[in-house]
Amino acid sequence: MKGRPRPGKNGTSSSKPGKRTRLAPKDPRLRTGYRGFCPLTSQQGELLGGGGLVERRPFEELDPASFFEQFVLERRPLVIRTGGAPAALEALFGLRGEAARWASPGHEGTAAMCLGPAGKCQVEVERRARTSQFFGQQDAGTREITTLGHFCKEIDQGNELAYLTTQALPEDARGCPKALAPPHVQSLLDGAETLRPKLVSGLAPVQYNLWFGRSQEGSSSGLHHDFHDNIYVLLRGRKEFRLFSPRCLDILRPVGVARGRAKLHPNGLITYIPGVRSDGAPVSLARAWSGEKKGAPNCSDEEEAELDQLLTDAMDAGVDDGHGPNESKESPLPDSFCHVSTCKEGRAPIPSSLRGRHLTAELTVGDLLYLPASWFHEVISYGGDAGGHLALNLWMAPPRMGSSIDKPYEDGFWDGLYCSLEKAWRRQPQAADQNAPRQDDASRRPKSSRRPRGKARTLWTHRKQLPPRKRSARVRQRRP
User: Fold this and answer.
1) Are 186 and 349 in contact (CB under 8 A)?
2) Mind listing the pLDDT tens digit for each residue in 112-164?
3) Coil, strand, or helix at residue 287?
4) Is pLDDT above 90 for 100?
5) Alpha carbon separation from 345 to 132, 241, 341, 349 (Å, rounded)
6) What's the average model confidence in pLDDT over 2-20?
7) Residue 341 C-beta-side C-alpha neighbours within 13 Å
8) Span 420-438, pLDDT tens digits
9) Domains of the chain, each with CATH number or no CATH
């Protein structure tokens, strides 16, 4: 049996005397350390509870203070009902009228998105060979560069093999993003009165994303977790989120666990390299920010080198924890993705101890989902008409456990970053004009920022949501 010493000829252990052998547990257990809501409990090694639907509340019954206390601090998912897509965009961002027409149902909304300024923006589109494949799990090198307008036409014509998801953002030399959203999302939110919804005003936005595809029978995202708190608004189609608590980390075994890197923070955040706070801020960056604010010098060269070495070792070296013959091989999936699925026609089925125990959040048009950081979720998307399925989401830095709405983080790092990027967003000219693909760069992926030699490597956790890039892979250009 794996993890135990083999019996000798006389039934005795073949391990050398005095050498302790670590025994692997028969079954993975719920991991401790997380202090938030979990529908599952464990008694004498047996899982109890789970299953059922996520709570639903009307938007008008919520205020920022009660929402923060009852759901954000408790790390409890919530479905929030509004009066439809226009009402949802107006409630969150003050986006209304002609500025929100791109979210209209059917061909009307797709045409507005295609013909508007956002339609000229360059996007990277993920493609699959057949409808039974999952999205979000192919190598990013297989993505194609096109324009949002051309992609809209594909959706309008019934293409179910393509999906628009998260986009790589420009970064500075430290790995920090230089924008809150890709150009097409900035363009679609151009008429917004606010980019920081009042309901979640205590949390700092990190990234805005658009999710757009088409599927009659339902397409799966694959089972994974994100690294930020999430407000997800469904604008077209229908979606089903199948959820597991972060405590299921060792049972679901995402790729990062197999590599021996996972840490579960009290607020539920799961990280895979050292030097990251529970709010997701890299310690080295937060320390440098604090020093700049106080007028003090940054960390010493020795501290910088030590942090650099820790992060380099964790990010560049594969760690084998001895579980399974194939898990020592590098997986093509990112750390946050699982090899198991809740879908019948998926990867390997989830462990029997968790079958039927996921929470379900059923979203229809106009519904919002609040999902705390690192809750595992598999999203099944439905939308077979001309409008497909369309959603907009906002990732936010997760708060510390026991914090307040006025001070959710231990310092002003996240607020400072958001404010600087929000000002840059408001100042810049129309994003579409800057981002239309040119003939000379049509076949090249935008280069990612590489850290200069001697700079500390930092973790920017939202990047891990995208599949890893293969150095030899190219992004293909599909011309309109």
Assistant:
1) no
2) 999 999 999 999 999 887 766 667 655 555 689 999 999 999 999 999 989 99
3) helix
4) yes
5) 7, 17, 9, 9
6) 42
7) 17
8) 999 999 887 654 444 544 4
9) 51-477 (2.60.120.10)
Indicate the helix (H) or strand (E) that contains 121: none
Query: Which one, of 207, 145, 204, 197, lies nearest residue 177 by Cα?
Result: 207
Which residues neighbour 272 within 8 Å (Cβ) at sequence distance 6 or greater? 256, 259, 261, 262, 263, 314, 335, 336, 464
Q: Would you say how long the chain is, in residues?
A: 480
Q: Residue 131 carries which DSSP code?
A: T
Dist. CA 368–CA 363, nearest whole Å = 7
Which amino acid does the sequence have at 449? S
Q: What is the DSSP letter of 125?
A: E
**CA distance linking residue 261 with residue 314, whole number of Å:** 7
Cβ atoms of residues 136 and 467 within 8 Å: yes
Residue 320 has pLDDT above 50, yes or no: no
Distance CA 225, CA 54 (A): 17
Give the 3-state secondary structure percentages of the chain, helix then strand then coil, rounded to 5.
30, 20, 50
Rounded Cα gap, residues 310 and 303, in angstroms? 11
Residue 5 Cα to chain centre, angstroms: 40
Helices (H), 161-230: 183-188
Q: Which amino acid is at 428?
A: Q
Burial of 183 from C-beta contacts in 10 A (0-12 / 13-18 / 19+): buried
Q: Report residue 263 as tokens.
A: 């840490």
Q: What angle do CA 247, 345, 55 make, to 5 degrees?
A: 45
Helix 148-156 and helix 106-115, axial crossing angle in degrees, nearest 10: 160
Give dist(CA 165, CA 272) in Å, integer: 23
Strands 78-81, 56-58: pairing is: parallel
Q: Residue 163: enclosing H or E segment and its boundaries?
A: strand 162-164
